Amino acid sequence: LFHILLFFWSPTCIFLFLYLLFTRFWLISVLYAIWWFYDYDTPSQGGHKLPVLCALKVWDYMRDYFPIKLMKTADLDPRHNYVLGFHPHGVLVVGAFANFCTNTTGFTQLFPGITSYLLMLPLWFRAPFFRDYIMCAGLDKESASYLLSRQGGGNAVVIAVGGAREALDAHPGTYNVILAEKKGFIKLAMEHGAHLVPVFSFGENEVYDQFENPRGTWLRWIQDHLQSIMGISLPLFHARGVFQYSFGLMPYRKPINTIVGRPIRVEKIEKPTAEELDVLHQLYMDELNNLFEEHKGNYGVDKDTHLNFV
Q1: 203: left (phi > 0), else alpha (psi -120 to 50), else beta?
Q2: Within a domain: residue 96?
Q3: How far apart (Å, rounded) are the C-alpha atoms in residues 50 and 309?
Q4: C-alpha separations of 243 from 112, 142, 247, 248 in Å
Q5: What is the pLDDT of residue 52?
Q6: How many other CB atoms sit within 10 Å of the CB of residue 271?
Q7: Can you give the pLDDT at residue 1?
Q8: Rounded distance between C-alpha atoms, residue 153 and residue 147, angstroms
Q9: Band of the pLDDT at 138, cuts 50, 70, 90?
Q10: d(Cα 112, Cα 199) in Å, to the nearest integer?
Q11: What are phi and psi of 165, to 5 degrees?
Q12: Region label for 106, one of left (φ > 0), alpha (ψ between -120 and 50) or beta (otherwise)
């Protein structure tokens, strides 16, 4: 419930900032505006990651609610930097948040010497007060280059590759991955020599139902146009309530099992050609598909079900 409410904090914080300006507490907003001006570029320069916030007890309750588990298939050498591609996005990227923004599933124990950063849409960092909270766990997408250019390694940038568009396809029982034309994260990895790691989260699409919105319907047309204008999608999702199981915004209690695949070695090429991008992109798709096929039987996925690359 705490996590779901976070998505309503952004407009609330904007309203609070403006409201305080017209009360006797106006100085709070003014002082914050000065801080905001001074700190404006921080979301794209590493943020303010706070281990204390990532270790709050509330995240353990969130982990156990579903439950959420994180598993690795290979070690990650802390001498290198990494780009982790997270699939699928799901409605609210619950697995990505729990596994890579908090310590509740044991990321730091599984991958010692590696610090993970989940990249978020820049829009979330435009809300006063709220921006400072999410900077403690996630970062603006523009931070990727800053983190991957750090010498010494040990940084893992996590990208929900399918993004907001993929959230509109997050229906239970579906395995659609928007990846066929997504090459920006591949180029990012090549420019910095960061190794690529495919990540698949089984159960990510099972925790919410969505109103039917197949491509070609009026609902999907509206959602696609709003997404192209605002940068965020608006899936019409529902599940259970806090005290009843019929209807609400609380997710279903379905297990989420996130598998971190084997790293793909990437040589640094500051200006990769289209052919070089295509080769590495295809290799990444093959590795993600292999990861899915290797583990799907362990999580109730039918043997005849395969990833659908869109």
Answers
A1: left
A2: yes
A3: 36
A4: 39, 40, 10, 10
A5: 84
A6: 8
A7: 84
A8: 9
A9: low
A10: 18
A11: -65, -40
A12: left
Judge whether 66 lies within some domain.
Answer: yes
Q: pLDDT tens for residues 1-38?
A: 887 877 778 888 999 999 999 999 999 999 999 999 99
Rounded-to-integer distance, Cα 87 and Cα 28, Å? 41
**Global pTM?**
0.92
Instruction: Name residue, tokens 């952004």.
Output: 10
- pLDDT tens digits for range 222-250: 999 888 887 778 899 999 999 999 999 99
Q: In the predicted model, is pLDDT for residue 137 greater than 70? A: no
Identity at 154, one-letter amino acid code = G
Structural domain boundaries, residue 67: 2-299
Domain for residue 305, yes or no? no
Q: How many domains does the chain have?
A: 1
Task: Answer whether residue 174 is part of any domain.
Answer: yes
Tens of pLDDT, residue by residue over 153-203, are 999 999 999 988 899 999 999 999 999 999 999 999 999 999 999 999 999
Residue 175: φ, ψ to 5°: -135, 55
- Answer whether 2's CB lies under 8 Å from 63's CB: no
Comparing CA positions, the residue from 176, 204, 203, 181 lying closest to residue 306 is 176
